[in-house]
Amino acid sequence: MKILTFAASNSTKSINKALLQYAASLLKNHEVEMLDINDFSLPIYSADLEEAQGVPEAAFDFLSRIKQADALLIAYAEHNGNYTAAYKNLFDWASRADMAVYAEKPIVMLSTSPGKNGANTVLAMAKNTAHFFKGQVLASLAIPSFYETFDQTSMTINDEEWRAKLIEVLEAFDAS
Question: What is the pLDDT of residue 120?
Fold first, then answer.
C-alpha cells in the first residue's frame, strides 16, 4: 500500500513533522511518500481571486498527489485551536478544485503539541469534517506533552504507553 504522509504545518521545526517522520518509519510493510506542504505555494484564498484567476495549479498538484496514494497519514499542528494558516489555505484552494479533497482514501490522523491536550482540538475538527471531503478516517491519536513524550535526539517516542498507542493506530492501515 502506498501511504502519502504530510504534516499540516509549514514550520521547518514542526513537532508534528517529527512525529510524522517517526510514525512513517514504523510503516515497514508499506511504501511511504512524505510530502511537504511548503511545496505548494499559493496566494491567500479569496473568492475574488478565484473568480479573476481561477484555482492555482498548485492546488491541483496537491490533489493529484493524494489521488495517487492508497491511503493518507496526516499529522495536524494546532494554532489557537485551529488548523495552521498554511494548511487551511492549501485545503481551501484544493477544495475549490475538488470538494473530494481526500479522494475516498483511508486516513490515519495524528496530532501533538507541547501541552496536555496534544492538539486534540484540531484533530477532532479534522476527524469530524473529513467525511464532507470524502475522507475515511480509520483511526486517530493525539499525543500530549511532546517534549516529555518524544526524544528529539533519537527521534522516537520514549514513552512506552504512547509508542504502543501509536503502533496500534498505525495498524489500522493493515486492517483496511
Answer: 95
